[in-house]
């Protein structure tokens, strides 16, 4: 599935954030931007998978609905953390304070990247080779 490939490809780039100088505002901004892209790729990939599963909710364009449905369908999906990511993603446009941006980057590094990686592994286990055919 192309969306899964894009998700994993972007995740490999986002994971490079662990090796960056976090005192550089340009780097901080780049990490936040990559997080936003990763989140978008994630919920849209989940939407495609829910469509495959026959979910009627998958026809919606609301990330919140897709996240809630994913929580109902996939026993390994952390819906509350994804809703937290959605809130942070939505609030990003209001981050003017350097400290708030640095705090968000710490959340991305400590909570969100591990969650993206866990979802990747769980979906591989759940779907196996089917992921390549969707």
List the helices and strands and how they pair.
Layout: H1 2-14, H2 25-52, H3 63-73, H4 79-91, H5 98-127, H6 130-133
Helix pairs in contact: 1-2, 1-5, 2-3, 2-5, 3-4, 4-5
Largest sheet: none
Radius of gyration over C-alpha positions, nearest whole angstrom: 15 Å
What is the overall silhouette?
globular
Terminus-to-terminus distance:
5 Å
Assign a percent range to the helix content.
over 70%
The low-pLDDT segments are none
Q: Count up the helices.
A: 6
At CATH level 2, the architecture is Up-down Bundle
* Number of β-strand runs: 0
Report the order of strands and helices: HHHHHH
Q: Would you give the CATH topology?
A: Four Helix Bundle (Hemerythrin (Met), subunit A)
CATH class identity: Mainly Alpha
- Total discrete domains: 1
Mean pLDDT level: 93
Which band does the percent of strand residues land in?
Answer: under 5%
Specify the structural class.
mainly alpha
Describe the structure.
By secondary structure, this protein is mainly α. It has one domain: Four Helix Bundle (Hemerythrin (Met), subunit A). It is built from six helices and no strands. Helix 1 packs antiparallel against helix 2 and helix 3 runs antiparallel to helix 4. The longest helix has 30 residues. The protein starts with a helix and ends with a helix.
